[in-house]
Write a structure and sequence with these properties.
The protein is mostly helical. Helices cover 35% and strands 8% of the residues. The protein has a two-stranded antiparallel sheet. The longest helix has 21 residues. It is elongated, with a radius of gyration of 17 Å.
Length: 101
């Protein structure tokens, strides 16, 4: 992929994917599909990056499998991590005696 250009406007990048996934209900079946060379591998490697809609979304030799994972769990985790990072940045701007620090 080193010779390709990423463009968020075209849907590239995890932030764009998160925005799309936030509109899908937790129990929607589409949340349970992940790439892997076989089902066990797909379940072992469930992540925001391996989530797929079809096998066209997967790497060479991989298939898009229905698993017991749910991509919404990774979306929520990613948002929580981003908020934590933002709080860390903001805490550096607070006075030493500020209770939010």
């Amino acid at each position: 992929w080193a010779d390709t250009t990423c463009d968020v406007a075209l849907g590239h990048g995890s932030k764009f994917k998160i925005q799309q996934l936030l509109n899908i209900p937790y129990d929607d079946l589409s949340n349970r599909y992940f790439c892997g060379v076989w089902l066990a591998k797909a379940m072992e490697n469930c992540s925001l990056e391996t989530h797929c809609a079809t096998s066209d979304d997967c790497g060479m030799g991989e298939t898009c499998w229905e698993t017991t994972c749910n991509v919404q769990d990774f979306v929520l985790e990613n948002i929580a991590m981003a908020l934590t990072e933002e709080e860390k940045k903001e805490s550096g701007k607070l006075a030493v005696n500020d209770e939010r620090r």
